[in-house]
Design goal:
The complex is a heterodimer. Chain A is built from 6 helices and 6 strands; from the N terminus they run βαβαααββαββα. Chain A is α+β, with helices and mostly antiparallel strands. Chain A has 2 domains: 113 residues, Alpha-Beta Plaits, CATH 3.30.70; 67 residues, no CATH class. The longest helix of chain A is centred in the middle third of the chain and has 28 residues. Chain A is elongated, with a radius of gyration of 25 Å. By secondary structure, chain B is mainly α. In chain B, helix 6 packs antiparallel against helix 7. Chain B has one domain. In chain B, 73% of the residues lie in helices and 0% in strands. Chain B has 16 helices and no strands. The chains are: A alpha+beta, B mainly alpha.
Chain lengths: 193, 406
């Protein structure tokens, strides 16, 4: 993870944001991310994000839950502690289905939640740079990475031309870090240093 | 925009051919089964008609239910193809009337050589049968006829009413929401009607009372789930067909995905209810309850019992789980046909064991009658579809449905 320079533009309307995203992609600037106060339908397609693999992870977690349940219960009831109850065979599969189902759901749910947090870089104690305080309130905020080939003034001018209500240039950590907010400056100084 | 559906000659000829096969089969059935001296032959004549007419009535009624449920939730995704469930729902009265004829035919005319009604045993209660006597306050001819008439009447009314309102919206002033809210209110009323008919009483009378000594409290939910998933598959088949004809321009893979989700999710829901009913009875092991599954699981129906589970649960969950397969025209069409066949089998194993015992067949008669009903469905629904525009012009949710993302 590294500190990078970003050009940040804030929009106050979805109808302006979508063409702006399209223009940025056509222009060849490196779109870092777009932050919106609510889920905007179709924005991921507009940004060209690839379909998430979260559901494949969910399937794998689910299969793990199923096999854990069936394996563990069948080990207990057939070899570790076999008891006959209700005249049922030791290997009484239908009776185990509810528990197997619950464990499948539990594994998939917990695993997918954690994976979701990892993919989105959110977790207890984990911090991420906030480009604009109103990005969770009423503005749509777009961040563009600035590098040697993209002069800062040119990018800002370009963003203004797409209809941004506010623009700024920020040095920011692009990924997440673990710690307290008051350690942020210390941390950034260390990285920049 | 190509929004009118003109029935292709091939479709019309196919449907007429299917109806002809059905009529010939029925005549053959009357000649060889109804007039037979063997009790099970005569029972087979009636139960096959009962099975198909009830199955088709219930799966077409689902189209009214999905319209009402989505209207009440103010969903826009259905609007792109809303004329399809409307057209199916508007023809419920045909299948309902056939079902009523068959049901009343069985209740009032059918008896075996001992003078007993083996299909609905509660019609002729044997001497000393305390269980059926105890149920006779509910299971009697008056209640049966009353509930059936009211249910079919209300379904037919709402099916035609929803379509009429949707067509009236086309000539209403632009952005007028009067009809929209009328549909909204009537949807609430219909859901209540539906809950008291197809989700509870009607399957008790039409299907569960065949095994009159036995009962299951979630039976109606289970038959509803079965009907619902095949009803959604039926809508899917029509969407794919119309899309292939170049109609339904607003339908994209996003809408296909939504209907595919219903086919997948409600296959799992059906399995949940099927298994809940089975597992409790298996676990408690009370003879008067297990007798139902003795015949089906270990008796002559075991092949249908297990293929029911594989076709209706294993196949949908394996084939439809992945996102791309719900967005693919081939897989959804294939699975829609598989699901309709699977739930036809499901109804088969609910209905046949009571009257026929080991003497069940899936032979010329069963297949011919099914084809006849399929022919009636294709003929009537395509006729209704061709009578109005396939795009619900002037519907206030039309733009929302066009930009819908699943």
């Amino acid at each position: 993870m590294a500190i990078k320079k970003f050009a940040v533009a804030a929009y106050d309307d979805e109808a302006v944001l979508f063409p702006a995203v399209k223009k940025v992609r056509n222009s060849g600037y490196k779109l870092h991310d777009v932050y919106t106060p609510f889920a905007v339908h179709g924005l991921d397609q507009a940004m060209g994000l690839k379909e998430t693999d979260l559901h494949i992870a969910g399937f794998i977690y689910g299969i793990c839950g199923t096999s854990t349940a069936v394996g563990f219960i069948s080990w207990i009831f057939t070899s570790d502690w076999p008891i006959i109850y209700g005249g049922k065979p030791h290997f009484a599969l239908p009776a185990w289905v509810p528990i197997t189902f619950e464990l499948t759901v539990l594994f998939a749910a917990v695993g997918m939640t954690l994976t979701f947090c990892y993919l989105n870089q959110i977790m207890f104690g984990v911090k991420k740079h906030v480009f604009h305080p109103r990005q969770s309130d009423d503005l749509f905020v777009m961040a563009i990475e600035i590098n040697d080939k993209t002069p800062q003034d040119e990018v800002v001018k370009f963003l203004k031309s797409t209809g941004a209500v506010e623009t700024s240039v920020q040095m920011a950590e692009e990924g997440w870090w673990y710690g307290r907010w008051d350690q942020k400056e210390e941390y950034e100084a260390l990285n920049a240093g | 925009m190509n929004d009118r559906f003109e029935i292709p000659a091939r479709l019309r000829n196919t449907s007429i051919a299917l109806i002809a096969i059905g009529v010939l089969t029925l005549i053959g059935g009357i000649a060889s089964l109804l007039t037979s001296n063997v009790d099970t032959d005569r029972a087979r004549f009636w139960t096959v008609l009962l099975h198909d007419s009830v199955f088709f009535t219930l799966i077409t009624t689902v189209s009214i239910f999905i319209q009402a449920a989505v209207s009440l939730a103010q969903g826009a995704w259905i609007v792109a193809f809303r004329r399809v469930p409307e057209a199916i729902g508007a023809n419920v009265w045909i299948f309902g009337s056939i079902a009523l004829l068959v049901l009343f035919g069985i209740v009032f005319t059918f008896t075996d050589s001992h003078g007993m009604n083996t299909i609905f045993p509660w019609v002729t209660i044997p001497e000393g049968d305390e269980i059926l006597k105890g149920k006779s306050a509910f299971l009697n001819k008056g209640m049966f006829v009353g509930f059936s008439l009211v249910a079919v009447g209300l379904w037919s009314y709402f099916g035609r009413k929803f379509r009429a309102m949707s067509i009236a919206q086309e000539s209403a002033p632009k952005n007028d929401t009067k009809i929209y809210w009328k549909v909204f209110r009537l949807s609430g009323v219909f859901l209540l009607v539906y809950a008291l008919t197809q989700m509870s009483t009607i399957p008790w009378f039409w299907v569960m009372s065949i095994d009159a000594h036995w009962f299951s409290t979630l039976f109606s939910w289970y038959t509803f789930a079965s009907a619902f998933v095949s009803g959604m598959s039926l809508i899917m088949l029509w969407i794919v067909y119309l899309k292939n004809q170049g109609n339904l321009v607003l339908v994209t893979t996003e809408h296909l995905h939504d209907v595919g989700k219903f086919m997948f999710a409600f296959s799992v829901f059906w399995t949940y209810l099927w298994f809940s009913q089975y597992m409790l009875i298996w676990y408690a092991n009370v003879p008067e309850e297990t007798v139902y599954f003795k015949m089906r699981q270990q008796g002559p129906y075991s092949i249908i019992f297990y293929s029911n589970f594989i076709i209706n649960f294993v196949m949908p969950i394996v084939i439809l789980m992945a996102r791309p397969s719900k967005r693919n025209y081939f897989t959804v069409t294939f699975m829609a046909m598989v699901i309709i066949f699977g739930h036809w089998l499901d109804y088969f194993q609910m209905i046949m064991p009571g009257p026929l015992g080991a003497e069940w067949h899936i032979n010329w008669y069963e297949i011919g009658i099914f084809m006849g009903f399929a022919g009636i469905l294709i003929f009537t629904v395509s006729r209704t579809l061709s009578k109005a525009s396939l795009i619900t012009h002037n519907n206030i949710l039309l733009k929302e449905t066009a930009i819908h993302i699943a």
